[in-house]
Each structure stands twice: as structure tokens, then as C-alpha cells.
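tool_log.txt
---
The assistant was asked to compare two proteins side by side. It first ran the structure predictor on the initial sequence, then on the second. Raw inputs and outputs are pasted verbatim so the downstream comparison step can read them without reformatting.
(1)
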Amino acid sequence: MATIKEMASGVADKAGTALGKVHDLVKPMKKSEHEIIRPSFTEGNISPKAAIMMMYYLIALDGEVSEDEMKQFDEMGMAIDSMYPHMKQTFISECKKQMDKAIDPEDYYDVIQEGADYALTHIPRSKFSEITPKLLLWNLLVIAQSDREYAEIERKFLKFTARKLDIDKSVFLEMEQTIQTLQMLDAEMEWLKTTDRPYAVIEKMVKELEERQQIIRKSIAALIA
């Protein structure tokens, strides 16, 4: 089984050029990896169930889940847990049951945060999962920024998650900046493809951008590990 460091490296490799392909950002789990530490809620890594519920809460923050978001959610769920197809509706139903507790529209964010709090503190940690707190936060950040529209309510939710997982604010801010920097580098590379500059000039510039991306990927891999 890959180590956390190896998985983090894979995460970082994908983040620079495929932020929207979230299924590549986590390591698949085998069916035998569902054993849970009971009754500990603090030892081990984040369970697949908790991770999947956190992702659903994130995409549901605006009050609706689009077809593209659902497709993204399915891809991530399959990557996290091989049993996802069988458990998908159960996980979603639990999330929706929590969200239905909102009495007034202004309560909606609060009930989602309460659900997220429960997922992170009451669903037992898994001794087989490789979803570390930092890796979960990274993937949530990637999902939030995959469409290049990082809403303030998403940031609020992610800041809450970082606090709940006891992740230092400097780590959270560095992750944010890393994703934004990788997005800018991706955009610059895409722009270069549309220019009519000489090939030799474009090739040199692309190489420089790729070298910058590689440095950033190594940095985030070390941070997540």
C-alpha cells in the first residue's frame, strides 16, 4: 500500500494541471479496509464515510447540487471507497436529513456546519484509511476551487473544517495560496498555446512554468505528508 507521502505526491502532481479531476486526488481503498477503530473518535485517519459526507456538504452549500457537481462527487466517492456505489444513497440521505433541519433559509449554513461537525467528531476514525486531516482539507479546497469560483461561504466552511481538524491556520493559508498559484500557472500555460510567438520562445516559457509547478508540487506534497 502506498504511503501517505506517496499519496500526497500523487495529489500534488494532479493538482497543477487537473484541479477539476478530483477522483485523481485520493487513493482508492480496498473492501478489506473498512475495519473501524471503536470506540475511538480521535485515533487513526478520517473514515471514508466522514470524508464523503464532508464533500457532499461542501457541494451542497449553495442550496443545490448541479449535475456536474454530482458527477464530480461520484468520481471522488469511487476513488475514496470501493463500496461507494452501495453506500452512496445512505450517505446522501444522512446529509439531506441533516440539511432538512433548517427551520428558516438563514439556518441552512448552520445546519450544514453542524452536520460536518458531527461527521468529523462522531464518525469513528479508520485505522486503514490514508485520508489524513490535511489530505481531506486539501481535497476539499481543490473541490471548492475546481471551477475557479471560490465562494466566501465555501471558504467559511473550509476554515471551520481546518479548525475542527486542528490544522494550523498557516497550513490552511498555504494550501489556499498553492492552489491559486497552480491555477494561475495553468492559465498562463493555456494562454501561451494561443499566442503566435516563435515555437522556441514558447517552449522555453513553458519549461520555466513547468519547473515552477514542480517546485510547488514538492512543497505541497511535503506539507500534506
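(2)
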Amino acid sequence: MGILDRVFNGGEYRVMEEIVVIAEIAKKANMELRNINDSNVISIEKVKALEQESDEKVFQLSNMISSGAISPNVLSDMLALVENEDSIVDSIFNLAREIKRYKVPNSKIAAMVKKDIITTTRLVDGALDELVKMERSSDLVSIKKYRKTIEKLESEEDDIKDGLLDYIYKNEVDFKTFNYINEIAHKCDDILDNCEDSADMFMSIMVSITT
């Protein structure tokens, strides 16, 4: 019998199982970002539909958590975890909208930004894989390892963000391109930040119920 089986009641166990669904929705949305091409064509409709699907799952889980099926000592943390997971999908959607809004006129800069976006999607995919494994694990040692990997991936994204920001501050770029790259850098980072926040909250829940 694993940690989850020992410490959670039926309602809590169902919530923890269903929370994984949000991370899986995020993975699908993230895959749509990988389809970006040189003209910034991206299926924003598909990403929006997935964002709405995540919202519906969050509404369902929030009602389940608030209905009294969850122990009071983890109720607020579980609500926060659900919101953090939803924020991952929201951040992917926000990035997709930003990508679609503007085409960088300079082909060299456009290629650089596209490369960094693709790299970000790979980091996000890795972080979501770890988050899913983390939330399906019943071993605290493994959960800590998954969380550490997510932290490392978020740190790599920080480097990408800093590289983009350094570029626009050190080089002559037009006003629209400057703002666009600034937004892209921060929105890419938001996704990994939300992955890390979700991992931290899940970790906090698991530590509080096992110590």
C-alpha cells in the first residue's frame, strides 16, 4: 500500500487522480505550440479549446474539494494545487496568443525567437512528464526527485529568458519587436514557473500528510 492509499480518504484520492488530467491537457496544449512555423501560424483554436477543457476540470475538482470530501488540513492546499495546474494551461494559451499577434520582420531575429520557443516547449514537456509521474507516485523519495528535475528545467528556462532579454537590450530592434520578444520571454518563463509552483504545492501536501 502506497502513501496515497494510507493517508487519503476516498474523496482526496479521487481528487489526486483527477488532478493529473490537467497536466495531461497541458501536454496536449504544449504540443500545439511546437507546430509554430515561420509565419507564426498556430492553431489557437485548439489551444483555446484545451484551455476551456482545463477550466471545466478545475471547476469540477474545486466543487469536489469544497463539498466536504477533503480533510480540512489539506483543503486549501488542494485548491491551490488545482489553480496552479490550471495556470500552466492558461500560460500556454497566453503564449500562443502572443505568438499569433506579431510576425518579427527581421528573419534572423524571428529564427532566434522561434528556436527559443521550440526549446521552451521541450522543457515544458519534460516538466509536465515529471509532474505527471510525481502526482502518480506513492513514494516520497521519488516525488522529491521529480520535483528537483522540474526545478532544474525551470532554471534552464530562466537562462532562455535572460538570453532573449539581453539580446533586445543590447541590440537595435524596433519598438514592436522589442515588446514582442519581451512578452515572449516572460510568457515562456511563466509556463515553467507554474510547473514548478504546482510541484512545490504537491510536495508541500505530501510532506504535511506524511510527517
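---
observation on (2): The chain has a mean pLDDT of 89. Helices lie at 3-7, 10-33, 44-69, 72-101, 107-136, 140-170, 175-210.
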